[in-house]
Amino acid sequence: MQQEQKAAPLPLAGLRVLDLSRVLAGPMCAMALADLGADVVKVEHPSRGDDTRDWGVRIGTRNTSYFNSANRNKRSVTLDLQSEEGAALARQLAAQSDVVIQNFKVGGAEKLGLGYDQLAALNPRLVYCSISGYARFTPEAERPGYDLVVQGEAGVMATNGEAGQGPLKFGVAAVDMFTGMYAAQAILAALYARQSTGRGRHVQMALYDCGLMITSYYGMEALLKQGDPPKFGNAHPSIVPYGVFEAADGPLVITVGNNGQFQRFCRDVIGRPEWAEDERFATNTARSAHRDTLLAEIRAALRTFSRADLLQRLTAAQIPCGEVLGMLDALQSERTAQAGLLHRFDDSEAGPQAVLAPPYAMDGQRMPVRLPPPHMGQHTHEVFRERLALDDAAIAGLRARGVI
Predict the structure, then answer these.
(1) Pick the catalytic residue: 50, 98, 147, 176?
(2) Of 85, 100, 367, 385, whose CB neighbour count within 10 A is largest?
(3) Where is the signal peptide (predicted)?
């Protein structure tokens, strides 16, 4: 009888992370490490918890859709860091951690005795990640950072929307999310370096820096042209036809990426072989120059087909395409189910729930959701007994004094 293949150890199994951050960028960073196997302990204020416990759709008594999106695979403890006793307990947890993540205002962690220099003196191997709004070596270091503000300041809003439309933000907090992912990458690099040096590093991330990175090739174009690139909405700035189009019964995405695909698009998909012979449309450069004329013709032709018929024709012609789904339809699609991208669990307060599964897969297996998003302080007793060797009486005393 063939034995079942044992799951490989999680890449970061055994790594201890102390998450002192709140809202989104820091928690997203910590969740990325948790998804890869790290033991992440999230510290929350005893009465209010993470700010996002009050954002979005309520789940049970203290969880929300927003909180759950950034806190799977973590354990939650409550601790009043403003109290001397609470800060001292946090230092004890940091002394035995591999990574600390915090996004206090600049100088805030130091006031609590939780700054990098203070904790590195206790634990020289500590990789310490500070996330702020603006780089700590600039005059704006003490400014608080907010995703929406940075989207405006970094020029990100100037890339979104249709021509003639005013500034438009991303639908999600993209700067916060990118900052969290960049921070996780830097932490992993510092952990790798620690293997040879034996010492940790102070990783310093700023929302503005990461927001500017999002401008990517648009940013490079702005520098080269010495002006803002035009807005193209759902179309591509340099490839035609490429974007969202309307069939007779709904939208779809069509991406004609090269001249061969355009030939097949004209002849095999929409039955307009004369376009394939037209010098104005022979190359992508020519099509871009005559964008408005060509796209008007294409849009009119596509509206004579059903979406299902177009998708079948495009697929047969080997032209990348796809439906445009609503968010709920996408989450509940067969594609999502086959990829195992939703994790369902029973919440002790709210009943059946779901969270997104980690995007990481290795050796044919998706990284698991080991722990659903925690209730506030759910693991305080467990972590304090395990990490700090406190007995029941000591923990009860902390609770009576309002420290936890």
Answers:
(1) 176
(2) 100
(3) none
